[in-house]
Write a structure and sequence with these properties.
0% helix
């Protein structure tokens, strides 16, 4: 069984930065594809970024050049470094681990506001 716990969310001004973390339990981490999703109020959950087992990364156009996804297999941790934050980045951010099936964290709130 895999459990994921996000942390690092909070309130930040436009132009600021945050680093989200996701801690995973279980032994599947290094063999898994990892991703971040977010859900803004009143909107559907949307994909943000993915990192493959070979560390190849993919980003949504809306965050490309501002966000960086990374992983530390030794610590079973994944990260999302978010720079140049905009109000439209506000939402609940979820980490996802995919190994045969999807496992989700509980989410962490990010609010970008002055």
């Amino acid at each position: 069984q895999v459990q994921l716990v996000e942390s690092g969310g909070g309130l930040v001004q436009p132009g600021g930065s945050l680093r989200l973390s996701c801690a995973a339990s279980g032994s599947l981490f290094s063999s898994s594809v990892l991703a971040w999703y977010r859900q803004a109020p009143g909107k559907q959950r949307e994909w943000v970024a993915t990192i493959r087992r070979d560390d190849f990364t993919f980003y949504a156009d809306s965050v490309k050049g501002r966000f960086t996804i990374s992983r530390d297999n030794a610590k079973a941790m994944m990260y999302l470094q978010m720079n140049s934050l905009k109000p439209e980045d506000t939402g609940v951010y979820y980490c996802l681990l995919n190994y045969i099936q999807d496992y989700w964290g509980q989410g962490t709130q990010v609010t970008v506001s002055s």
